[in-house]
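Escalation from tier 1.

The customer reports that the assembly of three entities below gives different structure tokens on two consecutive runs. Tier 1 could not reproduce it. I'm attaching the input and our single run for tier 2 to review.
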Amino acid sequence: MSTQIEHPATPSPTVGIEGSAVRRGDRVFQGLSRTAGIFILVTMAAIAAFLIWKAIPSLQANTANFFTTSEWFPDQKPSVFGIAALTFGTLMTALIAMILAVPVGIGIALFIAHYAPPRLASVLGFVTDLLAAVPSIIFGMWGLQFLTPQMEGLGKWLNDYLGFIPLFRNDSGQYSKSILIASVVLAIMVLPTVSAISREVFVQVPRAHIEAALALGATRWEMVRLSVFPFARPGMISASMLGLGRALGETIAVALILSASYTINWQISEPGGNTFAANIALRWNEAGDVGLSALVASGLVLFVITLVVNMAARLIIARRSEFSGAN
Amino acid sequence: MSELTRDERAESEELLHRALAGARLPRWGIAAAAVGAIALAIILNLTTSVAGVAGTVVVAVLLFLAIQTTWSFRVEGRRHAVDRLATTAVYATFIVALAPLVAVLATVIVKGMSVISSTFLTTSMRNISPRSEGGGLYHALIGTLQQVGIAAMFGVPLGILTAIYLVEYAPFAKSRRLSRAISFFVDVMTGVPSVVVGLFIFTAFVLTLGMERSGFTASLALTILMLPVVVRSTEEMLRIVPRELREASYALGIPKWRTILKIVLPTALGGIVTGAMLAIARVAGETAPLLLTTFLSQSINTNPFKGPQAALPTFIWDQFTSATDASVNRAWGGALVLIVLVMVLYGAAKIIARYTGVKRG
Amino acid sequence: MAKRIDATDVDIYYGAFKAVEGVSFAVEPRSVTAFIGPSGCGKSTVLRALNRMHEVIPGAYVEGKITLDGEDIYGSTIDPVNVRRTIGMVFQRPNPFPTMSIYDNVVAGLRLEGKKRSKSDLDAVVEGSLRGANLWDEVKDRLARPGSGLSGGQQQRLCIARAIAIEPQVLLMDEPCSALDPISTLAIEDLIDQLKERFTIVIVTHNMQQAARVSETTAFFNLAGVGKPGKLVEIAPTDVIFSTPTQQATEDYISGRFG
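Tier 1 run:
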């Protein structure tokens, strides 16, 4: 992280009255905490190792190209499966979700941190905190039973007025179980994540920076752009990153809304679409040995995608770190 | 100033007035713009193809933005127009977001309340078919409490220790590589999808080590999911503890580990506990890893180490996907119980945070 | 350029709490006026009321009249954003924008105005302001480096450069040296002496020697008691305040016999 606390060297305890006892306590405690940290590294390595190991049998059995095939028949003889449709569905739903959620989430955070009166802000902050905890399965049920009928109007409207854009055309006349609905649900789900973390950093913006901008004659919005956003940028990236991670890997809500289809359909308001995570949940119980291994293989790809997203976001933060520290 | 002629003085006053004054929209301006926008939207609704409540509301909001911004731009100038636009957008995002979120809660409460009864809370689904009414989630409640409890027993101490290492010890290590790696992979771990964690526990503990799928395997998955959350929140809290406090303690000759235990942790305690409870609340609703690492039981199993064990999320999933009227109702009942459980954890966390007096920023 | 300030019967509130009561004074153009007094006496609060920074705290408001060359800065047609642009401020702790370079910090206020300015115009403003703040020679080779990399005293002078870059009429300084070492403090005091040629300056300080060194006029604020609002005890030429104050409270405070 950017805020590195620079401690002076701790006084050496060797000449203290209780010198040896001090050092033992410190050694034990430091060892424990270090081991806990190392445990995290080991776990991450183990996740990668086991997924690779258990994915291999299905990849060997697969007679189709794993990356370019859309079908999913791993337990057939011969085994035919691939992740093309899953990759498309995962990226598409997550992308639309982020386009919807990031501006709104940051707006909510701004509202709570810098626009709402203090008392209202603390109430609303608590409300979004609570909403961050609504389990994904509940969002899925809600999306299927409540949101789907509401979304039909939007789907029709997009088709009628923006239908010249292939993305919004709907030739099927069906508007349920679509990528669009899944994306909206995902957007709602990641909203609290994006807004909660952005808010955390927004409220930490030093008053001095805010007043510096205001004293120069900035309007509130100019103050936000001068003082809040630059200070909070790494936090906002990290908020979006966590949101994206959640959107990419969200399983149950998507599994409830989409059905396990394996076609690539750019017309996002039509039924269809599937994601890595949803596919694993939907196919798990019926999968045979090769089928399980194939799902592990697809999970490995999801793991790698989220890894890449995280690393990219981390690099962005690292590059900005020289400028990001509070003084 | 006395050397100035009266004209010069008047001119300078005029300049000053212009520098300070800003034409502002009248107080009733915003209300007028809103009323105008709504009226226009209704007219459009009646005369054009703009239809439906949602559509009309969206049109009204857009009209309001357009009217207000144009008006402000002409009267107050660009900077104030942009400021007003941003303010309205910020307020709008909040309302746009709150609507679906309130809708979720309302749906769960309305649909859930209809099935909640003492039977529902105290019996299991043993010998009850998906089609028939009755039954309950007692077995799932026990499962969730046990699984989440075990996960917290592992996850919270590990997470706090890791954060202590990162904040208190790593800055003094000879090489920063280890702490950089840990810090990096904590971030990465936060982004690991829960279903992948479920796959990992399945492949490592079930396929490789030959453990049976039980409540315990589920807890292992939940442990991994909560670990990075606990690390990050604890780390953040520890960093807020002022350096002066630590230095005051060192200056009294108190060794570092005791400084951490007696000064740093108590100072940050409220925040740490809050973070841990939020992590627990978060994993309590996880469904995907449980589907992969446990078998669902319809009856009570109080032993998390042996045999199938239900949990609230898997109970809900099972009932909802059974797709009969009775089972879907039970799913909503389960959803309500799960939400209440999670919110109790949240509320408790917030209360703890308040009464232990963590001061932020 | 520089303007006079008149405050008449000013009360300042934080919500229901009355922090300052019945303050009236005049600040002459191109002079340095120092506000002194014990902690919590409301001197910073009064200062922040002079450019409407007080009201950015939720619930805070001002009653009474404050004018800049006769123009009521709390008038109904007055835009607080413009007031702050006209009456610049330097804070207790140096607060350069941490993500901006030295250069960008100086022109931050100008950029807000959104007028297109040529690079050479901006360069000239940056050089002029940094020279005006006695900082140019120290930073001219690293204008693109972040302002947060400077020492505390340099950061404070950077903040002064930032404030004078938009050519305000008045410069308010809220204990500008309290976070600085003596050498940096001296540099700032020298700077204040030069700046008063161009600006009306009001400085809050709890350092009486500083008030004696830099100001022509000194205002002494005091609390009537715990929980009571702060008041202006007396305002007079600095040498009078420090030699023959009219009020016993002032004399006690000046001579250290306070409290």
